[in-house]
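pinging the channel bc i need a second pair of eyes. not urgent but kinda urgent?? the chain im working w is below, pasted from the shared doc
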Amino acid sequence: MIRTRTLLSPESRLRRLAPLALPTLWGAVAVTWKLGCPLAQQPGLPMRIATSVVFFTVGTGLILGIRHGLSRELKRVRAIADATQRVLLRPPSPRLDGLSVAAGQLSASRGAAVGGDLYEAVATPYGVRIVIGDVRGHGLAALGAVVAVLGSFREAAHDEPGLDGVLRRLDRALGRHLRDRARDEHPAFCDGREPEHPAAEEFVTLLLLEIRQDGEVYALNCGHPGPYRIGHRVETVPVGDPLPPLGTFPLPADLSPYHCTRLLPGEALFLHTDGAEDARDGAGRFFALESVLAEAARAAPPLSPAVLVRRVHTALLRHTRGRLADDVALLVVRNDRTRVPAQPAEPGLRRPRPAPSPHG
């Protein structure tokens, strides 16, 4: 395991120490005045009060200087962390091959923008391909598996002609990540050998979707909740018999994508992780996700995917009072492709009328 050490330039060190310069100068003056000034050596209550005031002022200045430096450093670290997390789980493009897309995430870890859930949507020559998944556990500890799966998907979605090939690439990438993690955490146990089962407690549930140009939707489901279809009504979409989550068992030899539905123009698919439906309020009641979607489906005009994501997020936070027990990821894709109306035949290509019958 290679460890790196960040070296600060002299300028950076001076900037970090700048807030302490004035309080330190005050402290030096106060100590010099106390030890070297004859007036400060005189007994009496007024002089003791004056000395206490001087040292209290110096102490307050030191505390405020340290607090200001720490606050500025915290803001800088937060800005870097937020930018890094946004690159990792970047918002999908709002338009993909005639589809409108929006996504968002709520992390159960305080101060984290992302956690153990993942999503991505890309336009490929084979259709718009979508992945949404949930790493066991939540928060920043699950980011390693998120990086492995998302990085593999962003390459495999364009390279593999079939969803089965994409899923096998994701499985291999996660396996490599788990083996590397086991080797780093337990180098003596591995002893240079490849770990047989690197991390039995680590797995990822995910759903792969492929939306083709004609609206046909195919899926491979690895133990993940199915999506909702939002049209004139809200209904669950079957995604076939679930495969085992990635990282638990080897994938079967036959991986046939399941034809689950056809997304008509104007209809939307609402994908989510189980943190949405499993969210509870203070009384232990589950979040009524389908009811919230049904209410949103009745809105006129229809809500855009981005507004729908925000509405569900708001309802989730209101239901749990902001105390989520698990990460939540949401992704909405709406078919904005227009139907091509039937075109009238050209005048020269009109079908001739049948000749009248000789019997009238």
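so Confidence is low (pLDDT under 50) at residues 1-7, 345-352. and Residues 17-41+48-79 form one domain. — does that match what u expected or am i reading it wrong
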